[in-house]
Structure formats: structure tokens, C-alpha cells
TrEMBL record, chains A, B:
Its cofactor is pyridoxal 5'-phosphate. This is L-threonine synthase. The keyword Lyase applies. It comes from Marininema mesophilum. GO terms for biological process: isoleucine biosynthetic process; L-serine catabolic process; L-threonine catabolic process. It holds the Pfam family PALP.
């Protein structure tokens, strides 16, 4: 990308754009910076409303050198629909659901990997790995297949079977890990130099956050740049929420937004609530979650989000909050959404449940305009048995030992 | 709808538009007729390219009275992507896949039911039933939920479990039928007067065909109205194919298409090939399939499509053909598509397999421009066990007897 730069979200250190850099030496994640005046001029010359109905309509705000050669499967520009019944029941002025499950591979993760894999391809990289609670694994698998990269995905043992199956079908080398997502991430970090993997995990490279940013760009454009009051987002690693916030900040700086940024609300499930706990403790710094996780195997089960401090800062800066809901509330919310004809992933239902809770507490008020994100397709989470042939590992040493007999551990190639 | 009419596709009998009419007395299906000059003027005044990214951008060509009140979940305007690797391998000028699995409920059936349920709602109807091989059941379930109609769906015993689960989650009263889709249809026909059901089965009402028509309108607009050479479509009841053809005829009459209509190709699976058999026999009339069906439980397993004669006529008029592929070819094609990162429903894979076959036979030639339709999401077809509590019936008499104890047979309400 020409004329861009990177600025650390932690220490504000600024360097010229470099697609190969992920995190700052301070541990903060790097944000890609753009010449926004130039973007604005380009949007004026070629109006957004006449552009292709994919997230690549915003190519000037994505760091890919050759957007016309991007690795694309038709991602983004997903529908945003109102739920009039619940607007009435909850006395809201507007209630929208952004249906991001209608992406390739049935989840919002398509956005991040379309950009990330495009960037890797531009750099000539051909091996990429990701630790995932599920949807990132299958999305990487699909985009890597499309871009002809070799993909390696590492998921927790209890990752939904259908999503694991999907990853394998798209041809990713797929491994189950005795542990949680950070244990999966450690395997990649430990093995990357020997194996030649690029780690495309949350906050490890620039593309995924930028891709997820398009959720915010679309939200704005689909609402004619009139900001809602509140935005609720299921928060695991948090890069979706960070991406949306970054997008709205860029549009604000370009002078395109009407109204203040919405209040950002992070939603988690009881049993793994690092963001909720630290937000309400008032602490300034993010500390790893010390309790045992007992929540469900979904995208929001991330005990130690790599950019936790940034999430807290966004919630506070926008006057938002963080909230945890329990299994009973989630099941109830899923049922409510389904009876509106809307596929409700656990993550989408978590968000809907938190809306109900926050209306009750008064954190969301009558007459407000609210946006929910449904990040994945419900059907991906049905309990589905996996063949026992999928290799299970606990650490990189085990991976290295087992890979000696490659035939046994690549169930689908 | 004002100023519209109905014309029988069988005998050309023409009557004023009436939303309550499905089939002509001759057995032919009625087509909705529009004042195309008026549509053209309306599109000139408000250009398509500036409209909402749903199939309702074509509301002037849909028979709904109040499109602004349509029962919508964000359907249509799905991506169409190229597969450059296979363009090269097959020496094609262009190879596109229309990704219609990226619709609400993960299939193209969303289109038909968005219109059908909207029409039923306008008529004040509150009970609707459908016989289905699966995707129509879950799509009706979702749109009926959204429109607050009561939905009854009847599927064959071996209907994919995940789709049955989906129907129930959206709140449809769901029944498994000892038999095939026409046996399911007979239950509805036999019971409709006693139960107050409207039969929304293929060719029974006007909305579904008109909704599916938007696949053709989008194809045209997404290709800048330049027609491809060949269009391959998985053919069960055939209303998708008929809808696309009707759309292109309307656009042609409006003077908007460049080039001839593409050659339409119907694709079926070995083991249930009524269209293929009769097409190649050269017979003029459609006769019910007399052999035992041995094909898979997918959308193309329809031994006796209600508008079979019309399908034959479209294939012949456009210089197309009909082709059947077997399980081995389908599995191979599924694998090819997945390794391009594309979700491949059995129906989508059937189409891809038939492309390979027709390139080999020379029916599709080097340098041609080809469009494939992927009508549903692959994950919906994973083998998934259903609870034994779902009622199984063989005929309407059994339904009527069992419904006496409503609690036992409505697994989800």
C-alpha cells in the first residue's frame, strides 16, 4: 500500500506501512493509517452507491496493493434488517440486526481472511496458520483454498464439529488441541519458525482487523451515515469490535458521519468474562482471566484477548459498557430470534440476550436506535460427531512428533 | 397488483391478475404478466444500480401490492463469483457461480417465500403448508415466522436432518412423510379444506415462481445485461429454472438484454431423471416418472415435476439440454468446488459435475461463457440425527387422526 503508515494503538509509535508487521514492540497492535483526504476524493469521484455489493467497495480503506486481484469469495455487504416486533416490545426507535452470517463460510470471519489472505498472497507467502474457536478456522480454510495457500488450523477439542468438518472440506490441515484458543495459539508461535507458518491469529497481522472494519463501514453506509445510539457486539478476541470502531473513527475524521459514535457494548457469556470483569472493576490495564472457563465453546470464549486494553478503552471512550449473560438467557434469546425467522448463532443470541438485559437495567433507554451483530450461522453449532481420525495435540512438541507420519494426520488433502 | 394479468403457460388463457389463483383449469401454471413499458419507465426514473441490495430492487416485476411492507429477511442480490482456475482448465471464456446459498436460511428458496408469504399476508391468510425435499420447508418456516403465519411443512423421511431441525426452530409444525415429495403434496391437497391450509407447493400459487425469477434478473444485471452462452441449473420441481427463463424473457421484451438467451441446461442425479429421460426421448409431453427413485434426498429428487412440459419446452426453445450425473461424479465435483473455497451443496455439485460432463461431450464448447447456480449451503446436508419425537405420517387420514392430540405432534411451538 502506497503512502500508508502504521501507528501503534498502545504507544502511538508511528512507522511507514509494512504488510509484514503485526504487533508493536510494546505489545500493542498496529493500526493501518490512510491518507483520508485522498480516500474522500476517490469516493467523491466514484460514489459508493454505484459500487460492487461486496466489502471491496471500500478498497481505498483496505491495505491491499491490488484490490482487483484480491482473494474474494463474495464477502461483505450483508443485509441489515429491522425487527419491528421487538422495537415495539422494547420501546426502541429502531432495532437492526446486521446479518453477517450471510457471508461465505457463514460467518463474519470471511471479511478478515479475504484481506489477510490477499495480503499474504501479495507477499508471496504460502503457509498460514490460525488458532480458532471455529469460524476463523473454516474461513481461513476457504480463503486459503481460493488463494492457493496451505492452511493449518488449530481448534479446541470441543470446537463445534460441523465447523471442523467445514475446515477439512476446504482442505485445511486441521488439528484439535487439548486446551483453549490461547493454547492453540502457542502451538503456532512455538512452531512457526520450524514450520514456516505465518500466524494469522487475532492481532498477529494487519489484514484481519482491516477486513473486519468493513462491518463498521457498511453499518454506516447502510444507515445513510446516521449513527445509531448503541451497538452490541459479541466479544471474544475483540478485533471485530475494534475494527468497527476504527472504521467509524475513520469516517468521522473524513467528516462523513452524522452524530456521535454509538456506545459500544461488549457482550460475553457467564463463565468466561474477562472484558466484563475488568471493565466493571474500573481497572485501567487488562489482566489475563484467572478463573476456569466454564462457558460454551463459541467465539466469545477467549480468556485472554490480545488487545484487551484497547477494548476497554473503546467501551469507556464511547460511554458503552460490558455485560455477561448466562446460558438460560442465551437459549431464550435464540428462540426469540428464530421466531422472527432469523438464524441465531450462539454469539448472535448472546447479543440479543444482552439487549434484553440492558433494556431492563436502563443502560439502553426507550427511544434509542440499536444495532446488533449476528456474526455466524446457527446451523454451524449443531452437535455433530467428528471422526476419531482427526489428530489431537497438546503442544508443538507433540505436533512435531506426529507430523513425522504426515499421512496419518492430514485427514483431507 | 394493479394492471397485471395472468396468462396460462400451457394454453395461453388470459385473465386479470388474481393473487388467489395458482393453476389454470388446463393444468398449466399461470404466469404473472406486467406492463413492461411502465416497469421500464420506472427503472429509468430510479436506476437499479442505486437501489437496495436485495431482490426487492425489482419490486415492479413482483406481484406484491405494497413492496414496502413485504416480508423480508434480506434475501437476494447474492454474489456471483468467477472461478479462474476452472476457466483455464476447461478453456472457458468465463465461469461464474451464483452463490445463492448466501441467502437467509442458506438457500435460494428464500426468494420464493419472501414473495409468496408477502402475497399471503396481503390476502389475510394465516395458515400455509408446503411439501418439500428440505430447503423449501425451512425457508417457508422462516418467512412464515417473520410474517406471523402458521406454517406446516411435510418432508420425506430421509430429508436432511439439519434442515428439518431448522424448520422446527423457526417454529413450523414439521412432519415426516413415508414417501416422496408428491406424497407429501397429496397430504396437503387432501387436508387443505379441513385444515384451512393454503398449499404453497411448486406451481400451486403465484409468488414462489415470481420470487425465484429474481435469480434471473440478478444474473442479467450482475453481467451488465450481457447474456452468457450457457446456464446450468439443478432441476427438481423446476420452478427455479422456469423463473430464470421468465425473467430473461421479460428483460428481453423490455429491450434490455444484449445477445440471445443462454442455452438452459437441466441437471439431475442418476436415479431420478424424469426431465433428462423425456428430453432425450424426444417426447412432446411430460409423463410421470415410472421407475423407482434411487437418487439422494436432495432438491432434485422430484419424480413428477408439476410443470414438466414447460421445462422441456424451455430447454428446447433455448437450444439447451438435460443431463444426469452420478454419485461418484457429484462427490468429485463437490471436492473440486470446496478446493476453490466454495460451499458446495449436493445440488451445486450436481451442476458442476454436469459442466465437466458437457465439456467432455462438447455440448459446452471452448471459449463459452457459463453460469452455474449453487442453490444451497453444503452444511445443511450433513447427516444429522433427528429426535424420534417428530411425527411420521403416510397420508392425510393419519395426520387427521394424530392431530387429535396436538401436544404430541407439535415438537416445537
Amino acid at each position: 500500500m502506497k503512502d500508508g503508515w502504521l501507528v501503534c494503538s498502545g504507544c502511538s509509535y508511528k512507522i511507514p506501512y509494512d504488510a509484514g508487521i503485526g504487533q508493536c514492540t510494546c505489545g500493542g497492535i498496529f493500526f493501518v493509517g490512510y491518507d483520508l483526504e485522498r480516500v474522500k476524493a476517490s469516493w467523491a469521484a466514484s460514489p459508493l452507491r454505484e459500487r460492487a455489493s461486496t466489502m471491496w467497495r471500500y478498497h481505498e480503506l483496505l491495505p491491499v496493493e491490488h484490490p482487483e486481484e484480491a482473494v474474494t469469495l463474495g464477502e461483505g455487504w450483508t443485509p441489515m434488517i429491522r425487527i419491528p416486533d421487538w422495537e415495539e416490545k422494547l420501546s426502541l426507535n429502531r432495532l437492526w440486526v446486521k446479518r453477517d452470517e450471510q457471508n461465505p463460510t457463514g460467518s463474519f470471519k470471511a471479511r478478515g481472511f479475504s484481506v489477510a489472505v490477499s495480503l499474504l498472497k501479495e507477499r508471496g507467502i504460502n503457509k498460514v496458520a490460525v488458532p480458532s474457536n471455529g469460524n476463523a478456522a473454516s474461513a481461513l480454510a476457504a480463503y486459503a483454498a481460493r488463494g492457493k495457500l496451505e492452511a493449518f488450523v488449530f481448534v479446541p477439542m470441543d470446537c463445534p464439529g460441523i465447523i471442523v468438518e467445514e475446515s477439512m472440506r476446504y482442505g485445511a490441515k486441521t488439528y484439535r488441541v487439548n486446551g483453549l484458543i490461547h493454547d492453540a495459539g502457542k502451538i503456532i508461535e512455538d512452531g512457526k519458525s520450524s514450520e514456516g507458518w505465518i500466524n494469522a491469529g487475532t492481532a498477529k497481522e494487519l489484514g484481519r482487523l482491516e477486513g473486519k472494519k468493513t462491518m463498521g463501514l457498511e453499518l454506516a453506509e447502510q444507515l445513510s451515515f446516521e449513527m445509531p445510539d448503541v451497538l452490541l457486539y459479541p466479544t471474544g478476541g475483540g478485533s471485530g469490535l475494534i475494527g468497527i470502531w476504527k472504521a467509524l473513527c475513520e469516517l468521522k475524521e473524513m467528516g462523513l458521519l452524522h452524530g456521535d459514535l454509538p456506545r459500544f457494548v461488549s457482550v460475553q457469556e457467564v463463565g468466561c468474562t474477562p472484558v466484563v470483569d475488568i471493565f466493571h472493576s474500573g481497572a485501567k490495564d487488562f489482566v489475563p482471566y484467572s478463573e476456569d472457563t466454564t462457558s460454551s465453546p463459541t467465539g466469545v470464549r477467549v480468556p485472554n484477548p490480545p488487545a484487551g486494553g484497547l477494548i476497554l478503552s473503546i467501551l469507556r471512550k464511547t460511554g458503552g459498557t460490558a455485560v455477561a449473560v448466562d446460558q438460560r438467557e442465551i437459549r431464550q434469546a435464540q428462540n426469540y430470534m428464530e421466531h422472527q425467522g432469523i438464524s441465531a448463532s450462539p454469539e448472535g443470541a448472546i447479543v440479543f440476550a444482552s439487549l434484553l438485559r440492558l433494556r431492563e437495567t436502563g443502560d439502553i433507554r426507550a427511544g434509542e436506535r440499536v444495532v446488533l451483530y449476528n456474526t455466524a450461522h446457527a446451523l454451524k453449532y449443531l452437535e455433530w460427531p467428528l471422526p476419531s481420525s482427526i489428530p489431537v495435540i497438546s503442544n508443538y512438541r507433540e505436533y512435531a512428533a506426529k507430523i513425522a507420519n504426515a499421512q496419518q494426520i492430514t485427514p483431507q488433502e
